[in-house]
Amino acid sequence: MHLWQEFRQPNSISEAIEDLLNAPAPVVPIAGGTDLLLEMRQGRHEAANTLIDLTSVPEMNVIEKRGNFLYIGACVPVSQILASNLVRNNAEALIEACDLIAGPQVRNTATLGGNVAHALPAADGTIALAALGASAEIANQNGLRKLPFLELFLGPGKSAIDKTSELIAGFYIPLSDHGQASAFKRIMRPQGVALPILNCAVWLEREEGTVKGVRIAIGPGGPTPFRATAAEALMQNQILDDELIQEAVKKVLEQGSFRTSPRRATSEYRKHVVSGLFTDTFTQAWERSKK
User: Fold this and answer.
1) pLDDT, the chain, mean
2) I need a labelling partner for 246 at 20 to 30 A (CA). Which of 97, 200, 240, 272 fits?
3) 96-102, long-range: CB within 8 Å, 24+ apart, which pairs?
4) Which domains does the chain have, with CATH numbers?
């Protein structure tokens, strides 16, 4: 069985959008394809008439500063993100998340755009970007626009992007400043390359012993990538101590929805381990913010 009939390789975002709109349907964009091709072979994704390879689009393959932001193109392989000092100096949580995506061979091909486009509530790159306050750059026939990151997601596997006319071009992350830091950790089964039972990313800003600002993302904490906004509000402008962290954990448990997954963990287990995971991740970011 042929998974596609036509193959196109545009050299710009405008060409990619033109192909997306006008090539014989169904049209499917691809970059790394590490999940997409497997799903197509297994019958969990419809076969494409036209496959659009985005890996030759220069604007989607760069890591660079743009004003006060770090920009990462949606087609940059995960291994290149890991090797970037620019990313490491401004988004350490993303480095730690990318280092846990699959194995080295997959990371040479898989992309951050693909990780996000699947719209899974516990994708490692997605959770890191949520905590880092990222925004997505969306391309369509009218040009480029920025979208707040969490507005990309409608439900498990459901993206707000119109796949017939829009592409995720890249991501903007605010550059890190003095007193700001981030961290990412996850709990997973010990065998081989494992999917997360629970993961957590924290970005924070400190002023001496005070939490000036904080963003907390946990996956899966609901049907879409979960920001623990109640815990964030509690910690804002508060002096850090053990009691504050424990109160924040209570807010996470009250706001989050930690469901049972037959292949990963029960709801009760996730609720049990979230306290230690959040505390460890927050503490790591806090210690980094001293530098």
Assistant:
1) 93
2) 97
3) 96/128, 96/183, 96/184, 96/185, 97/124, 97/125, 97/127, 97/128, 97/184, 97/199, 97/201, 98/124, 98/125, 98/128, 100/124, 100/184, 100/186, 100/188, 100/196, 101/125, 102/34, 102/193
4) 6-53 (3.30.43), 58-174 (3.30.465.10), 180-288 (3.30.390.50)
